Every structure is written in C-alpha cells, then in structure tokens.
Amino acid sequence: MSKNVKKLTKLLEHWAEHNDSHRESFEKWKDIASEEGLDAVVENLAKAIEMIDKSSDYLRKAHETLEK
Q1: CA distances from 62 to 8, 21, 55 (A)
Q2: Which residues are CB-neighbours of 1 under 8 A, at least 6 positions away?
Q3: pLDDT per position as a tens digit, 26-59
Q4: pTM exceeding the 0.70 threshold for the entire prediction
Q5: 3-state SS of 6-68?
Q6: What is the mean pLDDT of residues 63-67?
Q7: Which residues of 44-66 are buried (b: 16+ CB within 10 A; e: fewer)?
Q8: Which residues neighbour 58 within 8 Å (Cβ) at sequence distance 6 or greater?
Q9: How many other CB atoms are found less than 10 A from the CB of residue 2?
Q10: Cα 67 vs. chain centroid, distance in angstroms?
C-alpha cells in the first residue's frame, strides 16, 4: 500500500468520525429549535442530518474498500 493510500485510509476514517461529531451537534440544536417552535429550522436541520449521514456512509464505504 502506497504512502498516499495509507494517508487516504486514515483521512476517510477521520472525516467520517468528524461528521459524527457534527451530527451530534445538529441533533442537539434541532431539538432546541423544536422546543423554540422553529419548525423551518428543525426541517432544515433534519435534512442536514440526513445528508451528513449519507456523506458518512460514503466515506465509510470508501474506507472499507481500501481496507480490503
């Protein structure tokens, strides 16, 4: 495995984990927005959460491909 591929493997793992931490923050603030009655904000944060989950899935799939 080349140096670049090793680095990419680590980066993919890091990026997915980083997304997870952002997701937690989005969830927290979505709940707060819900308590404040900010329905449009809740809806948009929910969509952002869906997108970050998809992004993390793709990053993990790419990581798994390199791990094979």
Answers
A1: 10, 19, 11
A2: 9
A3: 999 999 999 999 999 999 999 999 999 999 999 9
A4: yes
A5: HHHHHHHHHHHHHHHHHHHHHHHHHHHHHHCCCHHHHHHHHHHHHHHHHHHHHHHHHHHHHHC
A6: 94
A7: ebeeebeebeeebeebbebbeee
A8: none
A9: 7
A10: 20
In the chain, domain spans? 3-67
Assigned token pair, 12: 């993919």
The residue with tokens 């603030």 is 29
For residue range 30-39, list pLDDT tens digits in order: 999 999 999 9
Angle at Cα 12 formed by Cα 61 and Cα 62, nearest 5°? 25
